[in-house]
From TrEMBL:
InterPro entries: Nucleoside_phosphorylase_d (IPR000845), Nucleoside_phosphorylase_sf (IPR035994). The lineage of its organism: Bacteria, Pseudomonadati, Bacteroidota, Bacteroidia, Bacteroidales. It comes from Pseudoprevotella muciniphila. It holds the Pfam family PNP_UDP_1. This is Uridine phosphorylase. GO terms for biological process: purine nucleoside catabolic process. PANTHER family: FI09636P-RELATED, URIDINE PHOSPHORYLASE. GO terms for molecular function: purine-nucleoside phosphorylase activity; uridine phosphorylase activity. Signal peptide: none annotated. GO terms for cellular component: cytosol. Residues 32-271 form the Nucleoside phosphorylase domain.
């Protein structure tokens, strides 16, 4: 029996577009670039030779077009993994659910999804301007813990090692972290020779969860020191951002290939930040467009 999705579970707008993204099934390409900042969407699409649709709703701005003959959809997710839950589920619905019958399709499509983001560097070796490919992500956001099959796709050995290393007790930083791999083939192709490979911690916030203390003290004042000293099978934690774990995790569970690459805009060891990054992220965009 085919799976049927009720109107309350998969919400479809009157114009046959999906509830939040406002995209229609025929408007989605197999290659998808996700960016956080809606302002980054026109920057990516400026490289397209043709545009076939340009749709906006809330923080979700999508443009589908072609780059060197490749059909690509670029879409903004806004900030945070809660939006990634919406974006990944709606992208998959556009690809793999028939909007007329509300049933899962017989032939499932696999999307190649690359997130181009910004991040905070956690080692001296990744100064501002470095491109980092997240080989693995540690999700502090808790999202994957709500989905069945989570333990089948997560790196439970690294999860255990990380939890022991952090020595959190009681309700300190309570979400159970999950550890998820990016798609290895896509990561190799997109990261090439010019990106640093590392473990990324994806946080459910920019301040406390990333160990930034303004006027509220942190639950664990030693959080970042411990994160920076963690090492597993030769890999160190290189950076903080806020979406890679949810992108990799939901893509794995849905049968899509995903990876995240970010440009470092702040280095937490050197205590420096580059606020002029919007002028330089185009180089990373160009690399991804050529390799996706
Ligand atoms: C925080 O400033 C935002 O920047 C990073 C984080 O993941 C978070 O979304 O990514 P983007 O530049 O893609 O938004
Ligand atoms: N994005 C983040 O999530 N953290 C940083 O430090 C910089 C960009």
């Amino acid at each position: 029996m085919k799976k049927y999705f009720e109107p309350s579970e998969l919400i479809i707008n009157d114009d046959n577009s999906v509830f939040h993204l406002h995209l229609k099934p025929e408007e989605l390409a197999d290659k998808v670039i996700l960016v956080g900042d809606p302002g980054r969407v026109p920057t990516v699409a400026a490289h397209f030779e043709e545009k076939e649709c340009d749709v906006e709703n809330r923080e979700f701005h999508s443009i589908t077009g072609t780059y060197n003959g490749k059909r690509i959809t670029v879409l903004s997710t806004g900030i945070g993994c809660d939006n990634i839950d919406i974006v990944l589920n709606e992208l998959d619905a556009l690809a793999n659910i028939d909007f007329q019958t509300r049933e899962e399709k017989d032939q499932l499509r696999m999307l190649d999804i690359v997130r181009i983001g910004t991040c905070g560097g956690l080692q001296e070796t990744v100064p501002e301007g470095t491109f980092i490919a997240s080989v693995k992500s540690i999700g502090f956001d808790g999202l994957l813990n709500f989905y069945g099959g989570r333990n089948d796709v997560c790196d439970l050995e690294l999860e255990d090692a990380f939890i022991k290393h952090m020595q959190w007790t009681g309700n300190q930083c309570i979400q159970h972290p999950y550890v998820i791999d990016a798609n290895a083939e896509l990561t190799e192709r997109v990261a090439g020779d010019d990106m640093v490979r590392g473990i990324t911690v994806a946080c459910g916030g920019f301040f406390g969860p990333q160990g930034r203390e303004l006027r509220i003290p942190l639950a664990d004042p030693h959080q970042n020191e411990k994160i920076m000293s963690f090492e597993h099978k030769g890999l160190k934690i290189t950076n903080f951002e806020m979406e890679s774990s949810a992108v990799a995790g939901l893509s794995r569970l849905l049968g899509h290939r995903a990876m995240t690459c970010c440009m470092v805009i702040a280095n937490r060891v050197a205590h420096r930040a580059n606020t002029g990054y919007k002028n330089t992220i185009d180089h990373l965009i160009q690399i991804v467009l050529d390799r996706i």
